[in-house]
Amino acid sequence: MKRQTTACSILLATALLGACSTGTDDQATSSPATSASASAVAGSESVSHNDADIAFNQMMIPHHRQALAMAELVDERTTTQAIRALAERIENAQQPEIDQMTTRLADWGVPAEPAESNEHAGHGGDGGHSMSGMMADDEMAALTDARATEFDRLWLDGMIRHHQGAVAMADDELARGIDGPSRALAQQIKASQQAEIGEMKQMLGQ
């Protein structure tokens, strides 16, 4: 009986040691995979925007500012109600968008405009990074001096090109950007300004 009891004790101890060893091995095997998975998730969450997102927001701010400057000229230079109404819509839409983009860039820790920003850099540049459609200084001067029918024609022609430039910039962001809010803004700009281009072409009889 004593020998049987001793044998049973040995078997029980061996079984317990085996179970503990298996649990430790399983834990050691699963830990690296779990850690790698967690690291991958953390890494993907840390990349919220890229250079295209930064360029889109930085370039669109001065682009919008020029549209606001053009809209501000309307009241004293035309009696055409449709143009007055459109200018007011542009002001109401684009100033909040400027505020949104300025805040976003500040959150990213980058300046609101590129280091070598040029508000009239729309005549060239590297694809989507250029501010296409911008009015040149002499064009803005001519618009400022114009009145009545001549003002209407210059304003509509200039704003159509300006909007077309904004749509091109929005398309570039949608093609290359990864930041959700920036892409949503690009889609909003594209939709609203394409509709306004249609309105302005009708006003010009195109």
Describe the structure.
This protein is mostly helical. It folds into 2 domains: 1-46; 50-203, Ferritin (Up-down Bundle). The protein is built from 6 helices and no strands. The chain is elongated.
Short summary of the structure?
With 206 residues, the protein is an all-alpha fold.
Structural class: mainly alpha
Considering DSSP H and I runs of 4 or more, what fraction of the residues is helical?
A: over 70%
What would CATH call the homologous superfamily of the largest domain? Answer: Ferritin, core subunit, four-helix bundle
Largest sheet: none
Query: Do you know the CATH architecture of the largest domain?
Result: Up-down Bundle
Quaternary state reads: single chain
Mean pLDDT: 81
CATH third-level topology of the largest domain: Ferritin
Shape: elongated
Q: Given the structure, what is the number of helices?
A: 6
Keywords: Signal
Region (Disordered): 22-44
Organism: Gordonia hankookensis
Biased composition (Low complexity): 28-44
